[in-house]
Design goal:
It holds the Pfam family ERG4_ERG24. This protein has 223 residues and is mainly alpha-helical. It has one domain. The protein contains nine helices and four strands; from the N terminus they run H-H-E-E-H-H-H-H-H-H-E-E-H.
């Protein structure tokens, strides 16, 4: 990608190292624009590969309490990326960040092979197990955090683009993911800021839910 950008005369203006690491192409595409490389590797490769790695650990280890929690968590995250794919083009990664070594490396190596550390730890340390009540408590926190994560991100994306279609057959679909006539705050620069739905409680509530789910991933190790 760096070489094609260099040959095309694209540059970040910060030197060749910055061009290589941060990238010079925003949305490189193949096959006449039908395959967006950034979307494909961010969604269809990284998160699905993470789930498959965790699933392989579950097949090898058996469904202990911790393994069931992490398998459920990784399924929910991978599924949310696929079933809510129409929301992804409005995210920072797609519309702002260039497709360079940083994103390529993290999507192909970081997400699947780092985020599966909990799965690998549970596989290699069967002496650490969750009690049934601990498993139930973690699943309860996970489902609540996931609901906030899913619906908050959907509210944000549909606010940015109200014409986004819902994917038919996608599961689960939450009605709270779309707000009818949401309240907005007019900013000094003239843009609208969403202050309705989940965003009347916190500006970055989707990150809070994301961090909570990450905490569940860690606690599934039961050390």
């Amino acid at each position: 990608m760096w070489l094609t950008g260099w040959l095309a005369g694209k540059s970040t203006g910060q030197g060749q190292l910055a061009d290589f690491v941060m990238g010079t192409w925003l949305n490189p595409r193949l096959f006449g624009g039908r395959l967006d490389l950034k979307m494909f590797f961010e969604v269809r490769v990284s998160w699905i590969l993470l789930f498959l790695l965790t699933l392989s650990c579950a097949v090898k280890n058996g469904l202990t309490g911790g393994m069931f929690v992490i398998l459920t968590a990784h399924f929910l995250y991978a599924n949310s990326c696929v079933k809510g794919e129409e929301c992804i083009p409005t995210t920072w990664d797609i519309f702002k960040e260039k497709w360079g070594w940083m994103l390529i490396y993290w999507n192909l190596c970081g997400v699947p092979f780092v985020y599966c550390f909990s799965s690998w730890f549970i596989l290699k340390n069967p002496q650490y197990t969750l009690q049934p009540w601990q498993t139930g408590a973690l699943l309860g926190v996970l489902f609540c955090a996931y609901y906030v994560f899913d619906t908050a991100n959907a509210q944000k994306s549909h606010f940015r683009n109200p014409n986004l279609p819902a994917r038919k057959g996608a599961f689960p679909q939450f009605k709270y993911g779309r707000l009818d006539h949401p309240k907005v705050l007019k900013t000094h620069c003239g843009t609208d800021l969403l202050i309705d739905g989940w965003y009347k409680y916190a500006r970055k509530i989707h990150y809070a839910a994301d961090w909570t789910m990450a905490g569940v991933w860690a606690l599934s190790c039961a050390t």
